[in-house]
């Protein structure tokens, strides 16, 4: 009897110890994780070390360790409690963004082949700290459970898109957004910078784009634009957090805001526009799509496109420019796409476009962004998955959520709809959640549409499909409610999640 009781207790405690839920919840789920025995406790002085190659991440580690209130002391590798190391030999195993994190009762070690990997090792360590870390100071005593993690992303492209054109979002919001992206290992921020309702990026050769087109917005939306200087500042901020900015100017349709200042880019008598919508120099504040376009027979249109692409290429660090290409019917469309794509290449970048561009025989370096998944392509390009029923974050978190769209999926796009996405496309390079802003007019509603669904985007992008499990994800996410609140994210209170 005694023996029986003893074995029940042993079995119970083993099960309990193996239950990951009593451990801090890491999102996205690491691809290899093993909780081991013991825990690491911070003492009043923390000795830390980084090898010279890892110096880029040093301040980030110091900032994290400072939240404990302990003294920090840089020491030799042998004496260190916490160490950061770059080891180029791990490149084939961990690729550029992977890392290893090993925690024992004595030591915390993060190793990666590159600084982007170390950055994510530090992010994982950050998620092992209590939620208070996000406000900069931890007041309660805590310890970190021993663990061994070897992790790298499933996809290289883990993105979010913000529609800046219908309603503008300022630098402060974008920087906050980048911080939040980084916490979940999202690494691509696509900015939709022009559409019928507004033009949001300064182009020096065509100043009326922002002087006029920067002043309008969708009804009740915010107007404004980024100067090239601000764009660079944002890009620098993003780069430090391993986020690449992808600027999009939507061509040759969705171009009304450009025509406001430069009506010469439209056909005679504006016959390429729908006069019921608007005629230059009037602004357009409605939400119809597919009614405006450039006059593609006019040489000046190509001068314009060449100038805009050249200036964008000049200020963009990343290798990509997004040229839009969606929702337009025109006999010159394919020819236009091919020319625009060539201009992008001439300026040293690769072009991305919405999936419709693959009706044209574009270069194989092209990347298409799928949103309906129904275009008959004539080229087999690499693909970013933004299929609307899984990734359109302007749709409701739940059915009938006020001020959301439902044209793609009438019940909205739930957290589970995002999470359950699996790409069947062998040329998929990743996923991107798209927040269109016809109905999103301020920071608070942007938060509500982007979070927590972008966290599901992050896990779809990072974790291997066979390791995903929705029930278990939702459990982990519940533990992040406090962290998101510390970060002042006005996330949607999804009923699918039991927020702790
Ligand atoms: C379709 S998807 C659009 C956008 C709209 C969005 C609204 C795509 C490439 N074009 O212009 O904002 O639907 O959900």
UniProtKB/TrEMBL annotation:
Enzyme class at the top of the EC tree: hydrolase
A Pfam match: Glyco_hydro_20
InterPro entries: Beta_hexosaminidase_sua/sub, GH, Glyco_hydro_20_cat, Hex-like_dom2, HEX_bac_N
Domain Beta-hexosaminidase bacterial type N-terminal intervals: 23-151
Domain called Glycoside hydrolase family 20 catalytic: residue spans: 155-334
Signal peptide: 1-20
Naturally occurring in which organism (per UniProt): Zunongwangia endophytica
Source domain of life: Bacteria
Record-listed E.C. numbers: 3.2.1.52
Protein name listed in UniProt: beta-N-acetylhexosaminidase
Family: Belongs to the glycosyl hydrolase 20 family.
Reactions it catalyzes: Hydrolysis of terminal non-reducing N-acetyl-D-hexosamine residues in N-acetyl-beta-D-hexosaminides
UniProt entry keywords in alphabetical sequence: Glycosidase, Hydrolase, Signal
SUPFAM superfamilies: (Trans)glycosidases (SSF51445), beta-N-acetylhexosaminidase-like domain (SSF55545)
């Amino acid at each position: 009897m005694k023996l029986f009781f003893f074995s029940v207790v042993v079995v119970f405690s083993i099960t309990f110890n193996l239950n990951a839920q009593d451990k801090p919840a890491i999102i996205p789920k690491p691809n290899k994780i093993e909780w081991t025995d013991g825990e690491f406790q911070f003492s009043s002085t923390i000795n830390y070390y980084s090898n010279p190659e890892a110096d880029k991440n040093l301040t980030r580690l110091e900032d994290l360790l400072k939240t404990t209130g302990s003294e920090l002391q840089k020491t030799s590798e042998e004496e260190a409690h916490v160490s950061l190391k770059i080891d180029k030999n791990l490149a084939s195993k961990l690729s550029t963004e992977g890392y290893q994190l090993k925690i024992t009762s004595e030591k915390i070690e993060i190793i990666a082949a590159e600084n982007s990997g170390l950055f994510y090792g530090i992010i994982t360590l950050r998620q092992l700290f209590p939620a208070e870390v996000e406000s900069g100071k931890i007041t309660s005593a805590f310890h970190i459970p021993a663990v061994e993690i070897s992790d790298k992303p499933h996809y290289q492209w883990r993105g979010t898109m913000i529609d800046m054109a219908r309603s503008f979002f300022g630098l402060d919001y974008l920087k906050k957004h980048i911080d939040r992206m980084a916490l979940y290992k999202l690494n691509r921020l696509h900015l939709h910078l022009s559409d019928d309702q507004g033009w949001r990026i300064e182009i020096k050769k065509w100043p009326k784009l922002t002087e006029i087109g920067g002043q309008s917005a969708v009804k009740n939306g915010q107007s404004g634009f980024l100067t090239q200087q601000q764009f660079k500042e944002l890009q620098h901020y993003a780069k430090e957090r391993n986020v690449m900015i992808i600027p999009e100017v939507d061509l040759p349709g969705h171009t009304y805001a450009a025509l406001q200042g430069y009506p010469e880019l439209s056909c005679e008598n504006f016959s390429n526009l729908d006069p019921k919508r608007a005629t230059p120099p009037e602004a357009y504040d409605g939400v119809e799509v597919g009614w405006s376009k450039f006059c593609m027979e006019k040489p000046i249109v190509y001068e314009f496109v060449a100038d805009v692409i050249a200036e964008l290429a000049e200020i963009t660090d990343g290798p990509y420019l997004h040229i839009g290409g969606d929702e337009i019917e025109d006999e010159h469309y394919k020819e236009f796409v091919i020319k625009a794509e060539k201009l992008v290449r001439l300026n040293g970048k690769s072009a991305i476009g919405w999936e419709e561009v693959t009706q044209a025989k574009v270069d194989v370096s092209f990347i298409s962004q799928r949103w309906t998944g129904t275009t008959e392509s004539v080229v087999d390009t690499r693909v970013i998955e933004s299929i609307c029923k899984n990734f359109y974050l302007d749709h409701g978190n739940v059915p009938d959520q006020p001020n959301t769209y439902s044209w793609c999926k009438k019940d909205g796009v739930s957290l589970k709809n995002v999470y359950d996405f699996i790409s069947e496309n062998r040329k998929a390079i990743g996923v991107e959640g798209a927040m269109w802003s016809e109905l999103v007019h301020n920071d608070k509603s942007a938060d509500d549409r982007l979070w927590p669904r972008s966290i599901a985007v992050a896990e779809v992008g990072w974790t291997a499909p066979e390791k995903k499990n929705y029930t278990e994800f939702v459990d982990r996410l519940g533990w992040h409610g406090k962290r998101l609140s510390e970060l002042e994210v006005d996330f949607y209170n999804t009923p699918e999640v039991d927020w702790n």
